[in-house]
Amino acid sequence: MTVESIVFYLFATLTVIGAIGVITIRNAVQAVLCLVLTFFSAAVLWMLLEAEFLAVTLVLVYVGAVMVLFLFVVMMLDVDYASLKAGFTKYLPLGIITALAMFGGIYWVIRSEVFGLDKVPEPAKHGPEYSNVTELGSVLYTNYFFAFEVAGVILLVAIIAAISLTFRGRRDRRGQSVPTQQQTSKEERLRIVDIEIGPRQDGRDKIEKKKKSKRKTKGGKS
After folding, report:
1. Of 65, 13, 8, 9, which Cα lies nearest the Cα of 36?
2. How many Å apart are CA 52 and CA 58, to the nearest integer?
3. How many domains does the chain have?
């Protein structure tokens, strides 16, 4: 057994163990850490296939950004596990049917007559002058140029939609509604209000009496 085979079986086992830990561990933080282990192991497997660009991208994007974000969100959220377990029995039949369908599809794919080792060509070995980044870039920007641009536009639309859905603006912000101003008539622009003049308040009467008494005392002293 070669060193490459030992590394492959080691990290393939770690990938399977990490994936099982993601779905079996109840602690959310530990489950995220198991997912990080799975991504690292998958990146090593891609390195063995000479796909170093995809391996580095997997580590930088998923482990370095997405998983760290998930970890912070999970640690800051106060998850009520009692409410989550309350609806478990309600959706249990649907979960069993979905799991059986997934396992059936996996079994159909890994059968020897459909996806055997003889059906998959062995990865070609390249020399030190081979660059995975150059080959991947040439394929993306030549053969799949239109699909690459469409994917970029779709991501841009998704970003704009997410911003528009989450942005609510300041509640205390004052502004003018131009359509409302244009649709108003001349009767609505000017409103005349009749204000009834009521009796003076007692407090004001007392203040006026105090002022008059002060004036009288000043006049008497003079």
Report:
1. 65
2. 10
3. 1
Query: Which residue, among 132, 147, 145, has the nearest Cα to 57 in the 3D structure?
Result: 132
We report the CATH number of the domain holding residue 64 as 1.20.120.1200
The model carries a pTM of: 0.55
- Burial code of 12-26, b = ≥16 C-beta within 10 A, e = fewer? eebbeebbebbeeee
Per-residue pLDDT band for 171 (boundaries 50, 70, 90) equals low
**Residue that has been written with the tokens 């007559």 in this structure:** 113
130 within domain boundaries: no
pLDDT band (50, 70, 90) for residue 79: low
Q: Residue 19: CB partners within 8 Å, gap ≥ 6?
A: 34, 38
Q: Are 18 and 33 in contact (CB under 8 A)?
A: no
Residues 47, 8 contacting (CB under 8 angstroms): no
> Running DSSP on this structure, what letter comes out for residue 192?
-
Cβ count near 47 (within 10 Å) = 16
Within-domain flag for 164: no
Domain that holds residue 68: 1-79
Q: Which residues contact 126 (CB under 8 A, 6 or more apart)?
A: 50
Q: In whole angstroms, what is the distance from residue 135 CA to residue 129 CA?
A: 12
- Alpha-carbon gap, residue 56 to 61, rounded angstroms: 8
Q: Which two tokens stand for residue 186?
A: 């001349």
Within-domain flag for 74: yes
Please give the angle made by the CA atoms of 73, 77 and 79, to the nearest 5 degrees. 130
Is residue 165 assigned to a domain?
no
